[in-house]
Amino acid sequence: MKILGIESSCDETAASVCIDGRTILSNVVASQIDEHRLYGGVVPEIASRRHAENISWVVKESLLEANCTLDAIDAIAVTYAPGLIGALLVGISFAKGLAMSANKPLIPVHHIAGHICANYITHPDLEPPYLCLVISGGHTHIIEVLDYTHYHVVGRTRDDAAGECFDKVARTLGYEYPGGKHIDNTAKTGNPDAFKLPKPQITDSEYDFSFSGLKTSVINTVHNAEQKGEAISSNDMAASFQAIVAKTLTERTIKAAKALGYKKIAAAGGVSANSGVRAELERACAECGFELYLPELKYCGDNAAMIACQGYFDYLNGKRADESLNAIATLSLDKLCN
Questions:
Q1: Paired sense of beta strands 106-110 and 130-135, if any
Q2: Is 213 left (phi over 0), alpha (psi -120 to 50) or beta?
Q3: Residue 236 pLDDT class (50, 70, 90 cuts)
Q4: Residue burial 217-234, b: 16+ Cβ < 10 Å; e: rest
Q5: What is the model's pLDDT at position 281?
Q6: CB-hemisphere CA count at 13 Å for 68?
Q7: What is the C-alpha to C-alpha distance for residues 282 and 250, in angstroms, rounded to an integer?
Q8: Cis omega (within 30 of 0) on the bond before 108?
Q9: How far apart are CA 271 and CA 162, in angstroms?
């Protein structure tokens, strides 16, 4: 079965053709990073306009790359939640029009479910149930993947997501948007023990996260040094910050896995591309004898391959949408009616 996936939840206009939820025939992404970099982050109105300009040719290119026609597509999957409303609406509107004109089933896909599904592309042998750490610019969750379409959120961030925190710390250190890759690169030559940063704690939950205090500590340390005319090693600060985040994410995930009886752990989302996070997860899982699944780097960030993949499993589960499908800015994964 061939699924055409469309993704436009933030600042990447993407389309992909997938076979049976595992094999990717095409994966086309039009990035807006260079434009949003001028403003230090994503500007929703600009993102929506660029999606409208790009989506037609991106979908056409994905079909060409897959060497198939629209007639050969069995269903169209599109991200409908969560994300920037204006951005989502562009993808949804295009997908609805395409599905209606071509008389194809329309499948609404949850963005976070898509991120989880990226692991099925990289690891065709991976099957639920397992525990997944989803870490991106807007989301930080520990999720029980009960089967291909059912989930239970075990823990989540109370404030800043891990990726958002990476970007804000990077900006404080003078790096351009998106900052996560700059933190990762400079951390490799820094001393992770140079700065004694606070370890994020949540007193009333074993598995929730809070990164705002850590972010504030970095900002205050850097600003106080600047006011005193003192030099701060960006490499050391990046290494210290990244080490704390990686350890916090890993410790809570491992703790949840042990408590819930999982031996298989996966990670997904943009921050799962971070070398420090990947290394810490690999170390901890090897120590505990757990299987670890990490997506290929090109599937960590937003893409349509993961949406097409999840669309396949949602299709098998009977999930469909009609012309009334609308965008939803915030929707918890475990509140889906699958």
A1: unpaired
A2: alpha
A3: very high
A4: bbeebbeeeeeeeeebbb
A5: 98
A6: 19
A7: 9
A8: no
A9: 7
SS3 content of the chain, % helix, strand, coil (to 5): 45, 20, 35
Mean pLDDT of 15-22: 97
Beta carbons of 252 and 142 less than 8 angstroms apart: yes
* CA separation, residue 72 to residues 60, 108, 233, 314 (Å): 13, 20, 56, 19
CA pseudo-torsion sign 275, 281, 283, 286: negative
Tokens of 4: 């055409």
Lowest mean pLDDT among 112-116, 127-131, 133-137, 142-146: 133-137
Task: Using alpha carbons only, give the angle 40, 244, 232 rounded to the nearest 5 degrees.
Answer: 60
CB 13 within 8 Å of CB 58: yes
CB atoms within 10 A of CB 44: 14
Strand partners, 30: 13
Kindly state the tokens that stand for 141. Answer: 């969750």
Encode pLDDT of 151-198 as tens digits: 999 999 999 999 999 999 999 999 999 999 999 999 999 999 999 999
Beta carbons of 117 and 304 less than 8 angstroms apart: no
Q: At a CB cut-off of 8 Å and minimum separation 6, what does 56 contact?
A: 94
**Is omega for the bond preceding 82 within 30 degrees of 0, making it cis?**
yes
Is the model's pLDDT at 337 over the cut of 80? no
The answer to whether the beta carbons of residues 116 and 38 sit under 8 Å apart is no
